[in-house]
Design goal:
single chain; mainly alpha; 6 helices
Length: about 140
């Protein structure tokens, strides 16, 4: 049941990205182009997502436990440190250059656009390097990441 509901949630999320136009990198890049063909629609999508998440969290936190688990899986680390800032900056730079973040990139994959076909493998490589790069001496010559 958990896998089926996870699949259904992902499907609804992906359809929302497609319907809102967020699977189109030009839409995102136009939002970031304040001096040119600025398109504010991404702000409305983000506002709607923020409102939905706010209401959803308020409803869920009233429950004693999640519907499909025994406890809530809440991160315990609340520090703002160098890896967090570096990762956020890389995410934002990649989003600004490519016009994709991970969700819309996956939903755009069936279109086989060249930008998607370059972005997704590079994103996966970046994720792999982020989790395994500490062990690669070429990326971490002094042993500190």
């Amino acid at each position: 049941m958990r896998i089926a509901l996870g699949f259904l949630s992902g499907l609804v999320f992906g359809l929302g990205l497609i319907i809102s136009g967020m699977a189109n990198p030009a839409k995102v890049l136009n939002f970031l182009d304040l001096g040119g063909t600025w398109d504010p629609s991404l702000a409305f999508v983000m506002g709607g997502a923020t409102l939905t998440a706010f209401i959803g969290y308020r409803l869920v936190w009233r429950r004693p436990a999640p519907a499909l688990g025994t406890t809530f899986d809440v991160p315990s680390n609340t520090r703002i440190d160098r890896p967090l800032i570096t990762g956020a900056a890389l995410f934002g730079i990649g989003w600004g250059i490519g016009g994709f973040c991970p969700g819309p990139a996956w939903t755009a994959l069936p279109l086989l656009a060249p930008g998607t076909l370059v972005f997704l493998p590079m994103m996966l490589l970046g994720l792999w390097l982020g989790s395994h790069g500490k062990n690669l001496s070429i990326l971490n010559p002094k042993g500190a990441f």
